[in-house]
Every structure is written in structure tokens, then in C-alpha cells.
Amino acid sequence: MGRLSGKRAIVTGAGSGIGRASALLFAQEGASVVAVDRVEDAVDETAAMIRKAGGKVLSVAADVSDEAAVNGFVDHCIKEFGGLDVVYANAGISGGMVPLQEQTVAYWQEILAVNLIGPFLAIKAASPHMIKQGKGSIICTASVAGLRANAGGTPYSASKAGVISLVQTVANELYGTGVRVNAICPGLIETGMTKPIFDGARARGTDDKIGQLNPLKRYGLPPEIAQAALFLASDDASYVNGQAIAVDGGLSSTHPFAGRR
Ligand code: NAP
Description:
By secondary structure, the chain is an alpha/beta fold.
């Protein structure tokens, strides 16, 4: 028996990085997975990997910031798999690093639409079904950038702080329903999003410096975040609610400290 046996799960951003690793792990642990990403080829590739490993999956190309599309993939999961137990609203964009005076309203709106309104829409669409069954787990990917500065651009960081507030407030709005809502705050993870950082450091020959700020003295890999998502998705986390859990090698545990060896 897998830890998600019999559960129906949606994972967004499943065409790459943390979302792909989570979709693979959820399926490996027995969930029927709806894998969502905006690029069809990418999410189809994830679905093919899951099928090859013997898992059950449907792939959907959709924009998580489009309410009709979100309602569509939630309905698709319920229709095809007979219900919905887990939503991992993980898709996100970084927006890069743009100097404050060059940031436009459109730039902010694009990042907030995907990173913050996307999780809101997933929660809005999924929660009525979960409330009806008296149970469900919603997980959102926030970031250490939502905890404090210097882990991303300004709108990115604000969007992730918003995600932390979203899970805290919605967990309470869903008081008494049995639906749990939590966030994961990853540290630096090697994915499509952070590829430019890794590529740049490797090209400069400074890749041994990546991830040295946390006490584990290394960067993280997508399956390490997927394991946290698996825990929150499963009944093992039956009493975990309204939390933002950092999975960051200890990065967010420390004040700035110059005395590293
Ligand atoms: P990734 O490899 O780029 O994966 C994110 C996926 O989401 C991509 O396939 C992306 O497609 C997709 N996506 C973007 N906008 C979308 C939209 N509107 N609708 C549907 N799918 C969309 O990056 P990742 O690092 O795994 O990111 C997953 C989550 O982790 C994000 O929320 C990110 O902010 C968060 N996070 C990452 C790190 C890190 O160090 N990697 C740290 C903290 C938090 P495109 O490639 O086409 O954009």
C-alpha cells in the first residue's frame, strides 16, 4: 500500500522541477494524478514517465491563473477519477531580477496572477468538493523568499509572502470542514526556474559556492521537496494545518553569519 493509495491528486507546474518530481512521487505512492502545466509537451512527458513506472495519470495543458481553466482541470479530475483528495498548487514564475524603478504594474500583475492568484483559484475550485467529503489536503508552494528578503525579486517575494498568508487565512476560513491547507517554503532547488543561476555559476566555475549559505552547505533537489509534499498530502499529516514549512537546508533558521568555515 502506498502512502496515497486510493487518493486523487492534482499537481500544477508538473511539467518541470518540483511539480514533476511531486507528480511522479504521488503516483508512485498510489495516487491517481492529474498533471497540469501550461506547456503540453512538458506535461505529456511527465505523464509518460508516470505511465512507464506503472502509475495512473491524466495530463492537462492549462494556465493556472485562468479561472475557467482551473475549474476545468478540477472538474476533469472529479469526472475521470471520481473525486479529489489532494491539490498541490505549485506552478510559479520567478520574474527575474528587475530594478525597482523599472518594475511596471503589468510585471507585478503577471507574477501575482500565477504565483498567488493561481493558488487562490485552485483552492476556490477544489475546496467545495473537499468540504463535501469532510476531508482534503491543499498544498501550495511558497518560498523562503516569502519569509524574508534576498531570495528573489520584489514581486516574486511579495507573491510568496502572500501564499503563506493565503494558507494561514484559508485554513481558518475552512474552520471545521476537515480540509487542511499548508505551504512549503523551498530554499534553493535546482529546477528549470533556477537553471540560469546554476548555468551562470558553472560557466564562471563558481558552482562550488551554490547553496553554501545554509548549514547543510548544499542546494536542494526536486525530490527533496516532493517528499515534503507527499507528507502533507498523506494522512500522516492529519493534524498539520495552516503551516508554512521551510524545506531549505536550514537557510531560514539563521541570522546573517560571516564565520562559516
Ligand atoms: P520550474 O522547473 O520552472 O517549474 C515550474 C513549472 O510551472 C514550469 O513547468 C512552468 O512552465 C509552470 N508554469 C509557470 N506558469 C504557469 C502557468 N501560468 N500555468 C501553468 N503552469 C505554469 O520551477 P520550480 O522551481 O520547480 O518551481 C515550482 C515552484 O517552486 C514555483 O512556485 C516556485 O516559485 C517555487 N520555488 C522554487 C524554488 C527553487 O529554488 N527552484 C525555491 C522556492 C520556491 P514554464 O517553464 O513554461 O514557465
